[in-house]
Every structure is written in C-alpha cells, then in structure tokens.
Amino acid sequence: MEIGIATIAFLILFPVLVALMLMFVRGDRARSYITVVGALVIACGSIFCATQFLSPETHVYAIDDGVALFIDYAALVIEVGLCLYIFVKGVYYKKPLAVVLAVIQLGLAAYLDLAVAHDVNVANELYIDNFSIIMALIIGIVGSGIIVYGLGYMRVHEAHNDGPDRRPIFFSVMFAFLGAMFAIVFSNALTWMLCAWEITTVCSFALIGYTRTKEAIDNSFLQIVLNLIGGIAFSGALVWIGSFYGVMELDQFIATTLSLAASGMGVITYAPLLLFSLAAFTKAAQMPFQSWLLGAMVAPTPTSALLHSSTMVKAGVFLLIKISPCLGFTIPGFLVMTVGIATFLFCALAAISQPNAKRVLAYSTISNLGLIVACAGVGSDGAIWAAIFLLIFHAVAKSLLFLCVGTAEHHIGSRNIEDMDDLFQRMPRLARLMAIGIMGMFIAPFGMLVSKWAALQSFAQSENVILLMLLVFGSAATFMFWTKWLGKILAIANNDAADVELTVYRSEWASLGLMTVLTVGCCIGFPLISVSVVAPYLQTMFGVASNAIPIGDLWIMAVIALVIAVIFLGFSGSTKKRIAPVYLSGVGVDESARTFRNSFNGVSAATQRNWYMGDIFGEKKMVLIGLVVSLTLIFGSFAFVTQSVAAESETLAGITAARDSYEDSLWEQNDIDFNTYQQYYEYYRQYWEQNKDALRQSMGIESMDDLMDTLFIQMFVQNAASGTQDSGTSGSEGGNQ
Amino acid sequence: MEIFGFSIWSIIGVIAFLVIAPFIGCILAGLDRKITAGMQGRVGPKLLQPWWDFRKLLAKEDATVNGAQDLYVWLYLIFIVLSGMVFFAGGNFLLCVFIQTLGALFFILAGYSSRSPYADLGAERETVQVMSYEPMVLLVAIGMFMATGSFYVADLLSAEMPLVRYLPLIFIGFLYVLTIKLRKSPFDISMAQHAHQEIVRGIVTEFSGRTLALVELSHWYETILFLGWTGMFVVWAGGWVAGVVAVVVALVIWFFEIWIDNNFARFKWETMLRSAWWVALVAGTVNIVYLLFI
Amino acid sequence: MSNVGKSPWIIHYDGSSCNGCDIEVLAALTPLYDAERFGVVNTGNPKHADIFVVTGGINDQNAPVVKQIYDQMLEPKVVVACGACACGGGVYQTCYNILGGVDTVIPVDAYVPGCAIKPESILDAVIAGVGILDEKAKAMKMNPADKDRSEKDASTGAHASVADVDDGTNADAE
Fold first, then answer.
1. Strands (E), C56-163
2. DSSP annotation of C110
3. How many structural domains does chain A have?
4. Is A512 exposed, middle or buried (0-12, 13-18, 19+ CB in 10 A)?
5. Same structural domain for residues A110 and A187?
6. Which A-chain residues 407-446 have CB contacts (< 8 A) with chain B?
7. Is the peptide bond before C8 cis (omega within 30 degrees of 0)?
C-alpha cells in the first residue's frame, strides 16, 4: 500500500528535483552527469514500478486527506501560474487569442477547483494498473533515453546558435515534463490529471519556442492555442461530472458512465465524453488540430522525439483508451473512431507528398495516433489490445526514427529525404538503425503492423464499413511513403564517400542503441507482453482476456523480426563477387555518380527523386478534406449532444437535486450532521464495519470503496431513471425539496 | 493426425508447395510463353524454356552491383516461400499476405539498392504497384473474415459454400489486382516479363546471373501462391471435387490473365493507381455491405 | 552438356548503320521468323544478355558505347556482327569518322554478311553464336575458380584472337 504511493511520488517528484537542479547548473560536464544519472534513476524507477505492481488487478491508493488537500491547492496554484505564464507571454508577443484562452482557462480552473471539486470527495487519488505501468515504462525508459540523446545533440545545436546558451532551461523542462507525464498516468483524481495535462502543454510550448525565431514563436502559440482549447474542454468535462455526477475520480467517472448507460441513460453521459474526446484530440493532434504538431517540428529533435511522438501526444490517446469502455456504440465513440480513422487516412496520404523527413515523421505520428484513437473509439477488447500495442511500438520505433533523423541532420546538414540518398555508405551504422526504425513502423513482422492487423480484425468484428475501407487505403499509403524513404537510404553508390558518422557523440549512440534494442526487443517479446501484461489488463477491463492475434502467429512474427534485425545489424555489405557498374545505356562516365555522356558530348548526371504524387495526394488537398470531414463530425456530434442534453436538462437538474436531497435525508435519518467530508467518509466507514459480512454475502460488496460506489450509483441511477420516466416531474420535485 | 501439433495435411501442403511449386510455376511460365506465342500467331519457345533460362542464368559469371543486393533478393525469395508455406499449410491468410508484402519490400529494396536510374525507377513503380493492390488484397482478407469468421485458409475447406458466394465483387476486384501481382500488361510497369521491355528491364535491370535466377524462382513460387489465392475463393467442404474445381478455376483465371496480357497496352501508373483504388473502393464497400445483409 | 546455348538472350545495338539491318533484326523477332523458337529474347540490357548483336559500323562516338556495353555483359558472352558495315565498315568504310567494323573495338565471334542482312541470316548467326557460347560456358565450367578470362579463352583454342583483344577488360574483371 504505502510502497505504491512512495513509488508514484518518487516517479513524479524525482524528475522535478532533477529539473530544479539542472536549472541552476551551467557547466557541461556537471549537466551531463546529472542528466545521465537522473535518466538512469528514472528508468530504474519505472522498471521497479513494473516489477512491483504488474498484476491483473488495479491498485488504488488513498492519500491522507491533509496531504491530498495540500496537493489540491498546489495543483490549483500551478494551474493559475501556468495560465498567468501564457497570459504574460501572449501579451508580450501580441497573441490575443492565446491571452483570451488563458483567461478562460484560468477562470474555469479556478471555478472547477474552488466551487466544484472542492465539494466532491475523492476516495482514491492514485492508482496503478498494467496500462499505466506500460505508459510509465515508455516515459521512464524511452523518455530518459531521449533526454540523454539530447546531451550530444544540443551541444551541436548550441554550437550553431548565436544567442545565449539556453540548455539549462531545455533540460530542466524536459525533466519536468517527465514528472508531469508520470502524474497523468498515475492520477485517479481528475483535477490532478488536469494540472499535469496543462503542465505538458506548457512544457511543449516552452520547447517549441526554444530557438525564439519568429517561426518558432508562431508555432509555439499555435500549439498553445489549440491545446488550450483541449484544456478548456478537459476542465469543462470535469465541471460537468463534478456538478452532475458528484464524481472527480477517473474510475468513478467510468463506473458511473457505464451504469448510466446500462440503465438506458446513455445520452446524458455524452457531454463529458465528448469534451474528454475533444481534449484528447487536441493533445493527440487529431484532425482538425493536427497543425500544431507539424509546426512543432521546428523544435530541436529531442523535443520532437520526446514530446511530439513518443510521450506527450500519447497522453491524449491514453485518456481515450482509459475511457474507451464508455465509448463503444455511443455518439462520442462514433466521433472518436471516425475522426481517428479519417486522420489516419488523410495524414498518411499527406505524408506521401513530404520531402522533409521530420514532416514525414510528424504526419506519420498523427496518422498512427489516429489509428489508436479509432481503436479506442471502437472500444472492444480486441481494439484496445491493438491500441495499446500500437502505442507501445509507435513510441519506441518513432523515437528511434526521430533520433536517427536528428543525428543524420547534424552530419549531412539536411533533414530532406532526398539528401539522405546513399546514407548506407555515408553513415553505415546509422542507416541500418534508421532502416530498422522505418521497417518497425510499417511492415510485418514488426509490431506496428501486427497491431494494425489486430486493429483490422477488431474493425471487421465491429462490422464498420467506413473504418475498414479507410484503414486499408491508409495502410497502402503508409507502405508508399515509408518504402520510398527506406529505398533512398539503402541505395549504394559504390563510391568512396566519406564516412561522416565518426563524430557522432557517444551519448547519441547509446540512445540510438537503446531505442533499437527496444524496437526489436518489443517485437520479439510481443507474445510475452501480450500474455503477461496486456491480456490481464483487458481481463479486468472487459472480462475477457483473449489475445487478438493467435500466439502461434505472433511467435512466427517474432522469429522473423529477430532474423531481420540480426541481418540488418550484422551483414557486412561487402561481397566476394565482381562489382559491376550500373547500366547507363552504354554512355556512363562515372557510374557511381550516375553521370553519363550526353548527346552534346558533355557530361550529365542522372538524378532520381522520390515520387510525391502531389497532384493526386497533395498535402493541401488531403488536409482540406480531413479538416472538412473532422470539423463536420465534431460540430455535428456537438450539436446532437447539445440538443439531447437540452432535452434532458430537467432530468439532469433532477438528478443533481435528487442526489443532494437523498444525501440530506440520509444524513437526517441517521441524525448525523456532516460538516466535512471527513465525517461523511467516517459515517460510511462505520456503516461498513458494522455490516461488512451481511453486505459481502447479500450484495457481493468487497470493500468500503465498493460500498460507496454501489450506494451512490444505485441511488443515482434510481433517481435518474425515475426522472426520465416521469418526463422530468420527479426531477423537478426533487429540485423543489 | 498430428505431428508436433501440426495437422498432417498442413505438413503435406507445406512440403508440396516447397518442392512442387517451382516446377509447376516453371511449366506455367513456359506455357504462358507458348500460349502468348500462339495468340500472336507464332510457334514460340519450347515448353521448358523458362527452365533453360534458369539453368543458363545459374551458369553465368558471378557479378553484382553492390554487396547488399543479393541479400535482399535472397530475403525476397525466402519470404515469398514462407508466405506460400503459411498459405498452403492452411494458415492465417492475413499472415500470408503480410509476409508476402515483406517479400515484396525486399524485392523493392534490392532494386533501390543498386542506385541505377532504371532499377530505381522500376523500384519506385513497384512501390506504386504494391500501393495499388494492397487495399484490395486486405479487403479479400477482411471479406473472408466477415464471411467465415476466420482468417484461416484451412477453415475454408470445411465451409458449406465457397467464398465466392459471399464475396462476388471482392473476387472480381481481386482479379483486377491479380493482373498487377502477376506483372501482366496493362500493369507491368515496374518490369516486363520475357519479350516485353519497359525502362530497360525496370526493377530487375541490375540483377544478373544467379541473382536473376533467384528472382525467376521467386516469380514461379509467387505465381503458384497467387493462383492459390484465386483457388481459395472456390473451395468448400467438397472433398476432392472442391480441389479439382479450385485447380480448374485457378487455371481458367490464369488463362484469362494471359489473354488480358496480350490484349491491353501498358497503362500509365496514374491510371493503374486510380483504377485499382476505385475498383477496391467500390467492390469492397458494396461487397462488405452486402455481407452485412446476408 | 552446357545449358547456356538453349537460352540465348540478345542485346541489339545499332552503331552507325543506315537502319536497314535494324529493321531486319526486328523482323527476325516477328511471328514470321519467330526467333523465340530458339529461346531468343531481346532483352535490351547487357546485364541479362548473352549475345551482343551489333549492326552498323563503328565511329569515334559509338566506339566507347559498344565497348561499355560489351564490358557490362557477363561471361560467357558472344558478339555477332550483323551486316556488311558491322563486319568491316561496309559502304561507309572510307568515311572520315568510321573506324571500321565492330572488331575494331571488341572481339567478334561471328560475322554475318549482307546489305541489308536477311532475317534468316540473323537467326543463323545467333545459332552460330549459341555454339560458341556453349563452348565458352564449358571452358568456364572447367576453370570455375579461374577468373582470368584470357586463360579460359585460350583453353578453348578456337578463340585465341578473342583473348588477345580482351586483355584490356581483365582489370575490370578483377
């Protein structure tokens, strides 16, 4: 029990501590030392967490009320601080939209914390389950690895930068960000989660604007504006569930929603689900909010790798996967899956037209997140299986790719894929790692494709034609843009091109090696992860623990993955055969440079550029279609839900009033005056202690938390149901009491 | 009866594919050239001409354009064979498709690795070809799953009705992309078979001698695999009758592909991509909706 | 018995011919003559071809091209000079830019006369080339580890002249 809280507290607070230290350290050597040690400790901490708490059940932890209250206020202070920071920045850079949104967010957060959340009892503030352990491992290992990579990368980056060395800020924000991510994945108290959510937004804002060029500033404000919309939606959802359900815990929210849906009251749960989905869309850069992630590519590459591919954007899909049991066959669920799959298709198609490697990675990130989002929207066990694996494999393979592109950029002076021609000779080791990363993203036997297979299967099971059709075309587009890149870097010119990778820093190699091991290791360990981590989680979530893909087929894939990895990392690239020059129609001058004698007896070079299919799948066209589709869907579902909520508004009012009056009557009956929630809680505890055995036998209630849940939900559903049956009359009666 | 957990029929299927497929593929390739010659009013080569070509290529001098190409071609062959083994063992059709795509990827990489203008262009066109046929092939798998509730080819052998009963439009769409997969005109844009030419020899321009022999061998395996996919649509729990029907249908379709090959001029890649995607979109959507209603 | 001769793939190159012979080369591939009967395929790619069919004479501009195509063909390989110009320069022999027949740049294994050459003669020449191809393949087989082509050719005896001219390409072969 205690060790759980201690682990979580350590994982959240230790990165913050490192961040504070790094803020004041100026020396290169000291910074490297602190960063490496800090990263190692965080990675070990997350592994410890995994070994300690990996189990089918969810561990929930209640924090001492005084401490919890203190953290509540601290969260409020942090949120206010963040909003003020954005406000000041917005005023300074003359960005009115950001200022307005910051003010709205400030007001909403204050209202939420002081007026709504304050009155709601939170039983369990923290939790650990298998999915949050997976996220913690990604944050702890992949995230730390990327920060270590940043040491070498930022040294080169600053060497090209005339301004003041701002690396202390850079590294401390990166570490603070890790702490915030841990807080997101372990918080059951939604107000804490919101606070961490906002911290990641602001960390991203600070890092995108890191270089302080006009482009960087503009893009950082684009990010903050779109993500503030998400933050406001998140706060709105919390206000809603706080005031109507009287709930401020993630698991309680899910339980309430499910029981409401089970009793035919699904419609009134749509509003918070929609708001949560909207928040997740912004964070996961789903259409129509995808533009911030593309703009974020101006940030230094470690930022792109950490925030914009492997962790921060995963917070969005994390939230959706968490609430996905509520999403199946609902309006928000339909919105989530259609927006997700549309994003998957249109961003994959847009990626074909991109020559810039980081933009290709960005579009592919958005596209893959779209697939995860679509899986969450389907909400079946198979779909969630696919979503979790997509999340894992995307995190490792994409960070590997980002780091490879970053290193390549520093050594060949370009992030354009055309300039990566012949990388196999110029940077032999890096090209192989990059090849593994690329193959990890789109081809069997690597995890992304196997997960996609599971996604396809779950879509087929859900019999959704739209999902299936968009998925198959999106997959084909994915094949196109990855293959042409892969082909480019694996080309061999047989000239004596200088090996330019000798100057790559050791820290960069270490991280690249780590990511490669993770990419391949996760593929090989795929069956094991499925059986021991994901299936138990699905068991608790859905009551079934099937592997979406037969274990035998997974093992075949694992073996092939191992073989390919060994070959790519091991083969020498030399041959005993005679090396023949390539065919240039008999007029070749220097075949390795592809020059030939032209008809004027001069020398021309044959050049070969990738296909971009701009007139078929141009970026503008695809983005436009995607925007129209996603905006239509979002506005449509909001309009629908607003209308249905308006229709149910009396019921809702009734529910709230009935709940209040029920509690009042309960208290009066027992002649207890509840002044504080402490007393309220104490009352239930005593009730539980007295009637423990009877409750266990008659109602199957196993713990006090269960009791509170059951009492509350029963009461809630009864009142809500009577509210609808009498078309609001009993609701208004409740209101009058 | 089972050996190491595999049914005896799976093992027979795998061994038969490994051993017999190249020979049948070779004879079909020879027959293809004979029939083509017949359609053009010529005598044509001997039936075993592809075999002699293969032997000749093995006897040629060893040369290559770089140290990686041969490896990729080997991987291409291995994965095509593996994919066929999965299929003829009655395994997961989607697994078969994915491994086949992996093979296709290595074929493309072999082309790219040479950095020759012709092979490079051929490799890019091959990529477009994969992109063109991939949706339809995945739709076959989806249709199969939705019709029978399983991705396993072996389960088709115990189905009451052949797959084509449920997937008529997907079958037609599949035939459309089968022309791409068999590299027949009008879709032979990445490389052209035997007497035809396109951008010299497209993706295989830089393969020579033994490497080219391996490519030929892979193509024989591929032909049998794709004809197996075709036959898959018409098998049911009909014992040997179903088997004969599947073989006959596959051969008829194969003859039909040769007829198309000889009657159409090569398309541009845009036409190929657009038409293949439209066919997949229409055939797939209508057929899946049809599946939901029966 | 070598199998090389059963599958003679050709590459056709037009030097500075009047195109008369080239039309006949194409005619040889048409249904009327049907060169594919003998397994002949016009590959258009030196890396796949076994028989190099050259029409027209050699001039300063195309001499390196012919040489390069020849070098890119894999052993065993045979060169067939088709038509009077390819054999010795033909009517253009005395032109200022003509060096002469194909054998001025690469070793020729079979000379086929005619102006223009007849399709039947081309087929004859290819069949003759096939015989030489078989012999060369046999020689290669006898010395599989031997990379030196001049020695191989010397062992066949019949093509000593080929070896002499061929020396220049040995550097590439190594």
1. 58-59, 78-82, 98-100, 110-112
2. E
3. 3
4. buried
5. yes
6. 421-422, 424, 439, 443-445
7. no
Give the model confidence (pLDDT) of A400-439 as tens digits: 999 999 888 888 888 888 888 888 888 888 888 999 999 8
Give first-to-last CA distance, chain A, whole Å. Answer: 42
> Touching check for A583 and chain C: CB below 8 Å?
yes
Q: Does one domain contain both A121 and A268? A: yes
Q: Could you tell me the pTM of the whole model?
A: 0.87
Residue range A159-175: average pLDDT?
84
Across the interface, do A583 and B120 touch by the CB < 8 Å criterion?
Answer: no
Other CB atoms within 10 A of residue B178 CB: 24
Residue position matching structure tokens 């009551």: A543
Note down the domain range covering C20: 4-168
* pLDDT bracket for residue A705 (50, 70, 90): low
- For residues B250 and A507, the model is more confident at B250
A513 and A619: one domain? yes
A485 and A501 part of one domain: yes
Closest C-chain CA to B193: C43
Do A515 and A655 sit in the same domain of this protein? no
- What is the count of structural domains for chain C? 1
Q: pLDDT digit string (tens) for C33-64?
A: 888 888 888 888 888 888 999 998 898 888 98
Burial group, residue B264, by CB count within 10 angstroms (0-12, 13-18, 19+):
middle
* Inter-chain CB proximity B42 and C48 less than 8 Å: no
Give the closest residue to B107 by CA, choosing from B212, B254, B261, B223.
Answer: B212
From B38's Cα to the closest Cα of chain C, the distance in A is 10
To which H or E segment does residue A588 belong? strand A588-590
**B98, A560: Cβ pair inside 8 Å?**
no
Domain coverage including residue A582: 575-605
**Using the beta-carbon criterion (under 8 Å), do B200 and C45 form an inter-chain contact?**
yes
Cβ contact A686:A228 at 8 Å: no
CA dihedral A229, A235, A241, A244 (to 10 degrees): -100
Residues A528, A463 share a domain: yes
**Count of C-beta atoms within a 10 Å radius of residue A639:** 10
The residues on C that touch A, with CB distances below 8 Å, are: 13, 45-47, 61, 64-66, 68-69, 72, 74, 147, 172-174
**Which residues of chain A lie closer than 8 angstroms to B79, CB-CB?**
560
Residue of C141, C11, C125 whose CA lies nearest to C65: C11
Residue-by-residue DSSP string for C126-154: HHHHHHHHHHHHHHHHHSTT---HHHHHH
Indicate whether C173 belongs to any domain. Answer: no
Q: Are A427 and A510 part of one and the same domain?
A: yes
- For an interface test with C, the pick among A578, A591, A601, A603 (most C C-beta atoms closer than 10 Å) comes out as A578
Residues A625 and A696 grouped into a single domain: no
pLDDT at residue A109 is higher than 60: yes
Chain B residues with CB inside 8 Å of C50's CB?
56, 60
- Measured in whole angstroms, the distance separating CA A170 from the mean position of its chain's CA atoms is 21
Determine the Cα–Cα distance for residues A296 and A306; give it in Å rounded to an integer. 12
Distance between start and end Cα atoms, chain C: 28
By DSSP bridging, strand B2-3 and strand B6-7 are antiparallel
- For position C73, which CATH number holds? 3.40.50.12280
Tally the C-alpha atoms within 13 A of residue B209's C-alpha that lie toward its C-beta. 21
Let me know if residue C174 belongs to a domain: no
Q: How far is CA B171 from CA A42, B142, B144, B280, B283, in A?
A: 54, 12, 11, 10, 9
